């Protein structure tokens, strides 16, 4: 099919690698840039929550038309993102979704037993913390703004960026100082 | 209520157990991903995401559960290209035969599968590890055609 589309002039041979490269370049590091900035700049945090797309543009991140909603974790509320119907994901921000995000089990259990699901990710949410699950659609995609971890007061922007993991922006993890590798 | 539910509408269903699995996408998967985006871009407008979704959510539960994620995409956008008259089924079949014959078959992970001619579809494909699965020649007819 690829060769046929190229032979018919619908795609050029350069189009495909260029687009593959674009999505290869999209990943958690872009979301992390926004998270780090929001943690250290309250005015930016407000803008990120109110007008996410404009706030991303400030950081030089072009969402290519994706309508994004940023939901913020707090000491009393945790947010989790799922797409029960398919695999909607802020791919122009965080890259292509991880395989488990697209899996039948994640989609089914994300809204059925989200706390048990989070436990499988090693995240035991205390009973006092409310859990909000957001079901993405093709027209509206979500990103979690995780809580800034205690003990990171002295961190500069690059250090904060290194803390914000992909999973923390999906809501299957929280940011901890000792586990910043994911 | 269950009778009303589409097979893709999984929210809240009692599915198989969840396992966390990560893997890097294969080159084939990345290309399928790119081609779908390109066909829908402002320059081409040869399909839109909703059309692909319509094909995928009406392909039948057996196909849906039997194909991997990017195989479903491929099936989705080739179906739309044929519906819209951008490509014909005959052109696609001929291109697949050529690719299989010269070993440039765009199957994920390896070359052509031209020597295989399985017409049955098997269903032991684990959808939860879909993208990590090697491409199955027996799915090719459905996925590519």
Helix-strand topology string of chain B: HHHHHH
- Count of extended strands of chain A: 4
Number of strands of chain B: 0
Shape summary of chain B: globular
Rg for CA atoms of chain B: 16 Å
The chain-level structural class of chain A is: alpha/beta
Strand content of chain B: under 5%
Helix and strand pattern of chain A: HHHHHEEHHHHEEHH
Q: Averaging pLDDT over every residue of chain A, what do you get?
A: 93
Note the total helix count of chain A: 11
Runs of chain B in which pLDDT lies below 50 for 5 or more consecutive residues are 108-145
Globally, the shape of chain A reads: globular
Distance between the termini of chain A: 36 Å
Radius of gyration of chain A: 18 Å
The greatest interface between two protein chains, and residues involved on each side, is: A-B, 42 and 52 residues
């Amino acid at each position: 099919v690829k060769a046929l589309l190229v032979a018919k002039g619908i795609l050029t041979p350069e189009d495909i690698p260029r687009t593959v490269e674009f999505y290869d370049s999209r990943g958690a590091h872009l979301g992390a840039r926004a998270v780090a900035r929001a943690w250290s700049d309250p005015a930016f945090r407000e803008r990120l929550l109110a007008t996410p797309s404009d706030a991303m543009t400030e950081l030089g991140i072009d969402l290519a038309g994706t309508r994004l909603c940023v939901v913020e974790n707090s000491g009393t509320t945790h947010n989790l993102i799922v797409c029960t119907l398919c695999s909607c994901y802020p791919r122009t921000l965080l890259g292509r979704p991880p395989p488990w995000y697209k899996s039948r089990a994640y989609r089914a259990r994300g809204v059925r037993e989200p706390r048990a699901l989070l436990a499988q990710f090693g995240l035991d949410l205390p009973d006092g913390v409310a859990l909000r699950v957001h079901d993405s659609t093709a027209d509206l995609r979500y990103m979690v703004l995780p809580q800034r971890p205690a003990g990171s007061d002295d961190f500069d922007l690059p250090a904060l960026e290194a803390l914000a993991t992909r999973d923390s922006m999906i809501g299957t993890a929280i940011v901890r100082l000792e586990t910043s590798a994911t | 209520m269950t009778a009303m539910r589409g097979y893709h509408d999984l929210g809240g269903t009692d599915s198989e157990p969840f396992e966390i699995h990560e893997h890097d996408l294969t080159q084939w998967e990345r290309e399928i991903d790119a081609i779908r985006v390109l066909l829908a871009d402002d320059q081409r407008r040869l399909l839109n995401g909703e059309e692909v979704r319509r094909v995928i959510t009406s392909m039948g539960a057996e196909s849906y559960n039997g194909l991997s994620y990017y195989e479903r995409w491929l099936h989705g956008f080739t179906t739309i290209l044929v519906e819209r008259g951008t490509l014909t089924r005959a052109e696609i079949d001929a291109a697949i035969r050529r690719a299989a014959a010269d070993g440039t078959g765009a199957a994920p992970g390896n070359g052509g599968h031209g020597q295989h001619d399985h017409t049955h579809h098997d269903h032991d494909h684990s959808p939860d590890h879909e993208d990590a699965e090697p491409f199955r020649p027996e799915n090719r007819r459905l996925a590519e055609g």
